[in-house]
Specification:
The protein has 13 helices and no strands. The relative contact order is 0.07. It has 228 residues and is mostly helical. The longest helix is centred in the middle third of the chain and has 18 residues, at 115-132.
């Protein structure tokens, strides 16, 4: 196989590797855990990641120009392992991100949406993208907040999850304030998670923000878990 010359070979070998390692009993449990939203091969994460190693070698990675089509093809496949593979494949190209890649991320966020993919995309793909293209950040965060799509909104809150001292607190506060009053679990949980993560860097700011902001009970509880 030389995936650089034939993306179809890349997919064919991946299909074969997943099928060989499938386990119907594990798949049933995984499907139930994910509320029967997705099909599974029944491949546990360590096994899948071991399979992926060969595909992620630089010599086997398809050229960057093929990434969007390849990722979208993987996203359309029924088994959830393909979406996990796709997002981790995209991560291999972080240093080659281009400005238009934000549209691929939006596609991934808004199709087959659930926390297990959205949180990875937000923190590991979008978060890195905005470091490379900071001029894109404010417009997209506003667009996502205004979209009424809870997964885009969750991304707008969580993309700074790993920023530590580089968290833009003005932008974070603005995003949280825009979402106050939401009764959506995944939004309020994300707000709490992001704030809790930031307590590891700046607990004083988070405590003060929580004291001044009428957060949902869930958000406040999650935010202050490490400091109270």
């Amino acid at each position: 196989m030389n995936p650089k010359n034939n993306t179809l070979d890349f997919l064919k070998v991946l299909d074969n590797a997943f099928e060989i390692n499938s386990n119907a009993e594990i798949a049933s449990g995984q499907k139930a855990y994910m509320k029967n939203l997705f099909e599974f091969y029944g491949i546990k994460a360590p096994v899948r990641q071991n399979i992926q190693k060969a595909f992620f070698h630089k010599e086997f990675l398809p050229p960057k120009k093929e990434l969007e089509r390849l990722a979208e093809t993987l996203w359309e496949k029924p088994q959830r392992e393909y979406q996990y593979f796709a997002q981790e494949l995209v991560q291999q190209y972080t240093k080659q991100f281009e400005q238009n890649d934000i549209h691929l991320f939006e596609f991934m966020i808004t199709h087959k949406s659930w926390w297990d993919t959205v949180d990875f995309i937000a923190s590991k793909l979008v978060g890195e993208y905005f470091k490379i293209f900071p001029g894109q950040r404010d417009n997209f965060v506003k667009k996502w907040i205004d979209s009424k799509n809870i997964w885009l909104q969750r991304t707008a809150v969580l993309f700074q999850l790993n920023y530590k001292k580089d968290v833009d607190t003005v932008l974070l506060a603005s995003a949280v304030h825009a979402l106050l009053g939401s009764e959506e679990f995944f939004i309020n949980k994300a707000i709490g998670w992001m704030l809790r993560q930031y307590t590891k860097t700046n607990p004083e700011w988070v405590i003060d923000f929580c004291d001044r902001t009428p957060l949902a009970k869930l958000s406040r509880k999650e935010a202050l878990r490490l400091v109270h």
